[in-house]
Design goal:
mainly alpha, globular
């Protein structure tokens, strides 16, 4: 991956990162079908990862602290099941005003500031993820679709 990509994820806003992804997508010969999926998907993930980055509370899908938002971390969260789990983790964290379900230090988790989950929630509900009950599954076809989206994103980054 290009060094510029690392700097982009490390320092820039959601809009700037999404714009770069969108421009890169336009230079490829990808079907409009994928364009319609990749940009909203990227925005949904970044709408929560960038605020976590800004509050020094980034963590991996396994719950481990990480200092920097990287393209690899972004791709780790692009797994549809991981993204669903992240949404529920942050919703619970918003309610209690501390970061939950991670392996971060307790003191660090106390620094959590509630994150706006509207972009992520809209995106997940668009693909029939039940946002009321975490234990309910989503259709496997949606999971498979997002594996394709992840593959397109990987090729862009």
């Amino acid at each position: 991956m290009k060094q510029e990509t690392y700097e982009l994820f490390k320092n820039e806003s959601v809009e700037k990162i999404v714009n770069v992804i969108e421009k890169e997508l336009a230079t490829r010969s990808e079907s409009p079908f994928w364009s319609d999926k990749v940009v909203p998907f990227s925005r949904a993930i970044l709408s929560v990862l960038v605020p976590l980055r800004e509050n020094d509370l980034l963590f991996t899908p396994e719950g481990f602290y990480t200092e920097v938002l990287t393209p690899e971390l972004f791709l780790d969260w692009s797994d549809f099941l991981s993204l669903k789990t992240l949404a529920f983790t942050l919703a619970q964290s918003n309610e209690l005003r501390r970061l939950l379900r991670t392996k971060l230090k307790k003191e660090q988790c106390q620094n959590y500031t509630p994150i706006d989950l509207s972009d992520l929630g809209q995106y997940l509900s668009r693909y029939t993820v039940n946002l009321e009950n975490e234990s309910l599954d989503f259709p496997i076809a949606n999971y498979n679709l997002h594996q394709g989206v992840s593959n397109v994103i990987k090729s862009l980054l």
